[in-house]
């Protein structure tokens, strides 16, 4: 199965993508994770995206599209994948359509996690606190200032994807405010439907 998981920052995409990937035995492809690794490894891509990521801005389409195009060709993605954090713009969605179409493939489903904006800030700040409590370093964009930018980017650039996929009859929306296990069940039910 080829699935896209959509949702604002703090909606639980990462947590749910990992659970879903285990359940379906397909990889979770998180562009955020791939880019954070590139930043940590100080690769040429990492150096290009570091500042934008710290600010909470999106990185350029062509760069992230190239990263995904390469990743979905890897052997573990042959039977399917869950895209977590991609596409985030209509341009990226079109590029994804093209890259799948040239291989005679298509997406099976787009799952949207719906969470009220007021809840998101609390969740993100909590995630940062928990990371520090566990002796890890918090994400550099898990700050109030960067979250404001991330939400603005989501509203402006990513929310239009809801209409984009809805018009294709691919979108299923799930209440992301439920407990984690209930969201996971709802996602599986949506995929079965
Ligand atoms: P995430 O881990 O999905 O919250 O992504 C963290 C950051 O990585 C985002 O705020 C962007 O700076 C960058 N990023 C991840 N995925 C994308 C994407 N599809 N398009 C543009 N920027 C992205």
UniProtKB/TrEMBL annotation:
Annotated pathway: Purine metabolism; AMP biosynthesis via salvage pathway; AMP from ADP: step 1/1
- What PROSITE patterns does the annotation carry? ADENYLATE_KINASE (PS00113)
Q: What is its EC number?
A: 2.7.4.3
The record's GO molecular-function terms, alphabetically, read: AMP kinase activity; ATP binding
This protein's source sits in the domain of life called Bacteria
A Gene Ontology cellular-component term: cytoplasm
Q: Where does ATP bind?
A: 10-15, 127, 178
What job does the chain carry out?
A: Catalyzes the reversible transfer of the terminal phosphate group between ATP and AMP. Plays an important role in cellular energy homeostasis and in adenine nucleotide metabolism.
Name of the molecule in the record: Adenylate kinase
Q: Which organism is it from?
A: Bradyrhizobium barranii subsp. barranii
**Gene this protein is translated from:** adk
């Amino acid at each position: 199965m080829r699935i896209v998981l959509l949702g604002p920052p703090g909606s639980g995409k990462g947590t749910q993508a990992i659970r879903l990937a285990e359940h379906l035995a397909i990889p979770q492809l998180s562009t955020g994770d791939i880019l954070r690794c590139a930043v940590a490894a100080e690769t040429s891509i990492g150096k290009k995206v570091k500042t934008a990521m710290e600010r909470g801005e999106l990185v350029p389409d062509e760069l992230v599209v190239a990263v995904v195009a390469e990743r979905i060709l890897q052997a573990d993605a042959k039977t399917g994948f869950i895209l977590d954090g991609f596409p985030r713009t209509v341009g990226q969605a079109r590029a994804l359509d093209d890259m799948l179409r040239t291989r005679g493939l298509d997406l099976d489903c787009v799952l949207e996690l719906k969470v009220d904006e007021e809840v998101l800030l609390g969740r993100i700040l909590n995630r940062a606190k928990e990371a520090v409590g566990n002796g890890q370093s918090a994400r550099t964009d898990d700050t109030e200032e960067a979250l404001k930018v991330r939400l603005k980017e989501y509203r402006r650039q990513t929310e239009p994807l809801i209409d984009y996929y809805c018009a294709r009859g691919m979108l299923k929306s799930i209440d992301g405010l439920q407990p984690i296990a209930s969201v996971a069940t709802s996602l599986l039910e949506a995929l079965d439907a």
